[in-house]
Structures are given as structure tokens and as C-alpha cells.
From TrEMBL:
One term under GO cellular component: plasmodesma
SUPFAM superfamilies membership: Cupredoxins
Similarity section: Belongs to the multicopper oxidase family.
Main location: secreted
Keywords assigned by UniProt, alphabetized: Copper, Glycoprotein, Metal-binding, Oxidoreductase, Repeat, Secreted
Keyword ATP-binding: no
Lineage: Eukaryota, Viridiplantae, Streptophyta, Embryophyta, Tracheophyta
UniProt domain Plastocyanin-like: residue ranges: 100-167, 266-393
Protein name per UniProt: L-ascorbate oxidase
Domain of life assignment: Eukaryota
PROSITE patterns cross-referenced by the UniProt entry: MULTICOPPER_OXIDASE1, MULTICOPPER_OXIDASE2
Length: 421
């Protein structure tokens, strides 16, 4: 492909994005290093036409033994599989089948703009929302497969398929000539992480405070209570009390839920990579009380579930706020990992996943008076205890609607007689 055509394609791909200011450091001519190899670096020429951070593999050319050697450099944290055409031929795939077709340009996540990037497939977890732009720039006489498949758990169902058809181009057969796309394997977490870490806030998105007032680390474990399988957070499995939290807090009904201070960390020696030695847990209904208008960091820590070699994806969703996703990491979180938090352009969202055996760091400002659920958005997991409750500035909440006071102790207090709050 010619450079002009490559630039043209790039222009097309990035058309939805607003103008960006791109600063590229002047790099001197490539020079030999002490081991007599050519220094591997990009020149302005290599980066021409690319927005940074880039979404495409970059090709670097280096003169070596009078030959021009090209190396493909992949972003930090990404991976690439390079297959020779002969491998595709052996699989019976023609060149026509290998050319990519429509791409989705991701522009928004959970109601906030993100830096646009193009993908052929994307992960959407329960509770998340995205906007993508699709350009109808392919052969209009063809029909195209759209495919949906299960992520994170071994699918028990076939992929869902539908057909993309260009208007005003009647076809005798609706079935596309190419086979349906092959979905990434359900447990290809490298693929999932590659997509997730591409999501960065667009310039102009609110930025996080640079420091925090409080950090709450939440260990996600699968446990037993009375022989039943449950999920627990810092070894407490959430059960919602019969009295609604908001009324209980607003009217200071002290015995409506567990009143003791909740754990903000988990044992230093907890091994997140293996099943727990003690798999029992207990129920809890307490609330993390947050000082109004303070900044709170939440570290979501994943762990091994009850079965060996099992750790799953959980999409955590916060009510009443957006949070910044400051980073993802493997294994157990440690204080030093904070040095790598993204404070420059973290996505501003209300749902974020924890990957198997990994952690996710979030920051939010407790500036919305009320009592708020923060929970795994896989519905059965919430009802098995995978959630916590935050509350802040409840004294600032005005009148609580009757409908929110009809149960439990508030029901007895306000709805039993004629008295009204
Ligand atoms: Cu879950």
C-alpha cells in the first residue's frame, strides 16, 4: 500500500475525532549504540499521520548490513500475532476473506466521550454502554455478518448472528458469501485487556483529583455460608436489610443495618492466586460512610474462586457517580502500583471490570448526597453478596419519597399510623 493511500485510510478512520495537537520530539538521525546495533527509535517520519497513543502497529525501518530491515513495533502492553500468508492458505482462506471489512470506531463509553479508536470486535460487559461509528464504505452489493458471542464464561449457546444489508441494493440471497466471523475465544483475556486498555478519556473530560483522601481495598472472593455458595467483599457477603438505607440514614434509625465499621483492607497474607484456606464467610449489611465532597480510591482485587484455577471477570457498577479508571493490573495490588496510575486521561465511567486474578483502581468524588450501591453487574452475583453500599451527605437529601419508606422499620415508623416524615 502506498504511503499516500495509508494516510488517506488513516484520515478516513479518524475523521470523527476532533483536531488534536500532536507533539513529536525531534529525534536526531539514528545512530549506532555501544553494541554496534542501530538504536531502535521512531523518527518523525515513522509517526507521520498517526495520532498518539497509536492504535496500529508501527513499522520501523532500520538499515542493517546494507539492507533495509523493517521491524513491527507494538504498543506497550499489547500483543501481536504474525502469521505468514502460507498459513492462511493452508487453512483454506483466500486473500479476499482476509481483507478486513467494516470497523467500529468507539467514541463513547458509559456516557462520556473517549479517544476514538477502531476495532473489528469489542467486549461489552453487563452494565456498560458504548457508542460506535460505523462507516458504510464496503461493497454495497454484498451482505455482511454481525456476530455476538459470550465472553468470560464457556458459551453454552451458539454465536448470535444477524445481517448488515445496504439499503437500495436488493439481493436475491441474504446470506453473505463469506462465512460468519470467528469470535475471539471466550477466555482470551489478552484480547479483552487489549480492548479495555485502549479506552482513554477524550480531551475535555473532567480530570481526576491528583490525590485521594481515602483508599478502600475490596477483595472479591467466592465463599460458603451454611453450605451455600456466596460471593463476599472483604469476607462479608452483602444482604440487603428490610429497611431501605436512605430512610434509615436520613432518620437515624440505628438498628436498621449492621452498624460496625467495615473493613477497608484485607489480610496482607491473603493469597489471591489460590483457593482460600478458610472458605467460609458471613453475611453483612453495613455501609461505607464517606465524608461529603472527599475523594475516594477503590481498589477492586480479584482472587481465585472456590475451585482451583478459577477466577472470573466481574463488571463493577457504581450508582450515583462516575469514577475514573486509574489502572488495571495483574496479581495482588501493592502501594507501589499507584505510581503507574493514569491521572492524565483515565476513562470516566460508571462500570469497570476486574480481570481474573487482577486488580482495578478507581477514583471518585463523593459529591452526591445519598446511599449508593456499588456492585457486580452480573445479577446473580449481586444477589449472592457481591456488592457494598456507600453513603455520603445524607443530611443534605431533601424529603425522601413515601415510596422509599414503605418497608422495614421506616414502614413501621411512617406508614403504620398517620404520621408522615
Ligand atoms: Cu460478578
Amino acid at each position: 500500500m502506498s504511503k499516500a493511500r495509508a494516510n488517506e485510510l488513516h484520515e478516513e478512520l479518524y475523521r470523527p475525532s476532533p483536531p488534536e495537537v500532536m507533539v513529536i520530539q525531534q529525534s536526531p538521525k539514528r545512530k549506532m549504540d555501544a553494541r554496534n546495533t542501530w538504536e531502535i527509535t521512531f523518527t518523525e517520519q515513522d509517526l507521520e499521520g498517526l495520532s498518539l497513543p497509536h492504535n496500529d502497529a508501527l513499522v520501523l525501518s532500520i538499515p542493517f548490513q546494507r539492507k533495509l530491515v523493517r521491524r513491527v513495533l507494538v504498543d506497550q502492553g499489547s500483543s501481536a500475532e504474525i502469521l505468514f500468508y502460507s498459513a492462511f492458505k493452508a487453512l483454506g482462506l483466500s486473500k479476499d476473506q482476509l481483507t478486513s471489512n467494516h470497523k467500529m470506531v468507539v467514541v463513547e463509553a458509559d456516557g462520556n466521550y473517549v479517544q476514538p479508536f477502531a476495532v473489528e470486535d469489542m467486549d461489552i460487559y453487563s452494565g456498560e454502554s458504548y457508542s460506535v461509528l460505523l462507516t458504510t464504505d464496503q461493497d454495497p452489493s454484498q451482505n455482511y455478518w454481525v456476530s455476538i458471542s459470550v465472553r468470560g464464561r464457556k458459551p453454552q449457546t451458539p454465536q448470535g448472528l444477524t445481517i448488515l444489508h445496504y439499503l437500495h441494493h436488493p439481493k436475491t440471497s441474504l446470506i453473505p458469501t463469506r462465512p460468519p466471523p470467528v469470535a475471539p475465544l471466550w477466555n482470551n483475556y489478552t484480547h479483552s485487556k487489549l480492548f479495555t486498555t485502549k479506552i482513554l478519556a477524550l480531551m475535555g473530560t473532567p480530570q481526576p483529583p491528583t490525590t485521594t483522601h481515602r483508599r478502600i481495598a475490596l477483595l472479591n472472593t467466592q465463599n460458603y455460608i451454611d453450605g451455600y455458595t456466596k460471593w463476599a467483599i472483604n469476607n462479608l457477603s452483602l444482604v440487603l436489610p428490610s429497611t431501605p438505607y436512605l430512610g434509615a440514614l436520613k432518620y437515624s434509625i440505628n438498628n436498621a443495618f449492621d452498624g460496625e465499621k467495615l473493613p477497608e483492607n484485607f489480610p496482607m497474607d491473603y493469597d489471591v492466586m489460590n483457593p482460600a484456606t478458610n472458605q467460609n464467610s458471613s453475611y453483612g449489611s453495613g455501609v461505607y460512610m464517606l465524608d461529603f465532597n472527599t475523594t475516594v480510591d477503590v481498589i477492586l482485587q480479584n482472587a481465585n474462586a472456590l475451585a482451583e484455577n478459577t477466577s472470573e471477570i466481574h463488571p463493577w457498577h457504581l450508582h450515583g457517580h462516575d469514577f475514573w479508571v486509574l489502572g488495571y493490573g495483574e496479581g495482588r495490588f501493592s502501594d507501589q502500583k499507584e505510581n503507574n496510575f493514569n491521572l492524565r486521561n483515565p476513562p470516566f465511567r460508571n462500570t469497570a471490570v476486574i480481570f481474573p486474578y487482577g486488580w482495578t483502581a478507581l477514583r471518585f468524588v463523593a459529591d452526591n448526597p445519598g446511599a449508593w450501591a456499588f456492585h457486580c453487574h452480573i445479577e446473580p452475583h449481586l444477589h449472592m453478596g457481591m456488592g457494598v453500599v456507600f453513603a455520603e451527605g445524607v443530611h443534605l437529601v431533601g424529603k425522601v419519597p413515601h415510596e422509599a419508606l414503605t418497608c422495614g422499620l421506616t414502614g413501621k415508623m411512617f406508614m403504620g399510623g398517620n404520621s408522615k416524615p
